[in-house]
Design a protein that fits this description.
CATH class of the largest domain: Alpha Beta
Radius of gyration: 24 Å
Number of domains: 2
Number of helices: 10
Structural class: alpha+beta
Number of strands: 13
Strand order of the largest sheet: 3-2-1-6-5-4
CATH topology of the largest domain: Beta-Lactamase
Helix content: 25-40%
Length: about 350
């Protein structure tokens, strides 16, 4: 598409949606105000801001309807996200795509629709902003343009919310944000019996780098390694900074051997990178501990503990290596997956 919209990459679209981590959030005041404004400007009884995942339309703010979610295949907005321009339908009852929809034939009595996609900065339509009338009507180009501008504001709100979850130095998720993702993935993978793997990545001898070159140089190394890790990731992987010189990498739909290969790619890429800072050429290495998801009864804290134990072993056996842990039950766990092990740096 000439405007950069990515319409043929559903996996990437879902990953972009997942990054916002907002589907289970309640209505936020700013989004509610935008929905109020849409209803007023469009003189329409219904206005909604919604996001669309693999099989559900989730309403993040809605006026004139009292619903939290509906199946994706019944959603008018599911058609909106398939295009890069607004979708205007003057009479839903006369449109073969929607004539038999319960939204048209049922109590909601929807008859006309104007929707615009919510496009992320990287070009994915993750949802829609829409106005619905209960009478047939023509929405004009001016109204569509207004809705497009308001849709940009909605996405800006999503982006601001995301920034608050990001580590300002590296751009990775914060510890809290990352472990929220770990918990969600643990429940998802356990529910559907899918493979998933967690990796913990620690910079070797990081204190020595700070002591020798100074903390600004250490910050440059941190940023370089975060960028290197991100470059090796898939769109569906999740990356966070979980300690001073420690990162977490969540690999959905990945078994232990695939995760080991991913860890080796990261390890080799970091080892081959030279960070130039203030006239110094700095090399760093990382140790990686990997743990396949344990039994659902064990809990996500066990998952992190097993990855942490594998990292300890990578450090103990010489650093700059990847170790895949074996399932075990740690002696002590907490509800917040804090470090249980004192390991070498």
């Amino acid at each position: 598409m000439t405007d950069g919209t990515k319409l043929d990459d559903e996996e990437g679209r879902l990953a972009a949606l997942r990054r916002y981590d907002i589907l289970c959030a309640g209505e936020e005041e700013q989004l509610g105000r935008i929905a109020d404004l849409v209803r007023a400007v469009m003189d329409a009884p219904v206005a909604a801001i919604s996001l669309i995942d693999a099989d559900t339309q989730w309403f993040m703010a809605a006026r004139g309807i009292d619903v939290r979610n509906v199946p994706r295949d019944t959603a008018f907005c599911n058609e909106t996200i398939k295009r890069s321009e607004p979708l205007a339908i003057s009479d839903l009852a006369a449109d073969p795509r929607f004539a038999l929809s319960a939204w048209v034939t049922g109590a909601e009595h929807a008859r006309s629709y104007l929707g615009v996609p919510l496009k992320t900065p990287d070009g994915y339509n993750v949802g829609a902003l829409c106005a619905i009338d209960r009478e047939p009507r023509q929405f004009d180009q001016r109204q569509a343009g207004i809705l497009e501008k308001l849709a940009e504001i909605v996405v800006e709100q999503f982006e601001l919310r995301q920034i608050a979850k990001q580590d300002p130095m590296t751009g990775a998720l914060t510890r809290r944000g990352f472990f929220g993702e770990v918990e969600r993935e643990f429940l998802r993978a356990g529910r559907y019996g899918r493979p998933s793997t967690l990796a913990v990545i620690d910079i070797d001898h990081f204190k020595s780098i700070n002591d020798r070159h100074g903390h600004p140089a250490g910050d440059a190394v941190l940023t370089s390694i975060a960028n290197t890790c991100s470059a090796q990731m898939r769109k569906t992987d999740i990356f966070g900074r979980i300690g001073g010189e420690e990162f977490g990498l969540l690999l959905p739909e990945t078994d232990a051997e695939e995760a080991r290969e991913a860890g080796e790619r990261i390890r080799r890429a970091v080892e081959a990178t030279i960070v130039e800072f203030a006239g110094a050429s700095i090399r760093a290495t990382v140790s990686v501990g990997i743990a396949p998801m344990p039994a659902i009864a064990e809990g996500s804290a066990t998952w992190f503990s097993e990855a942490d134990i594998a990292l300890y072993e990578a450090k103990r056996f010489g650093r700059n290596r990847v170790v895949v842990g074996k399932p075990r039950r740690p002696a002590a766990l907490t509800t917040d997956p804090a470090h249980q092990i004192a390991r070498p740096h």
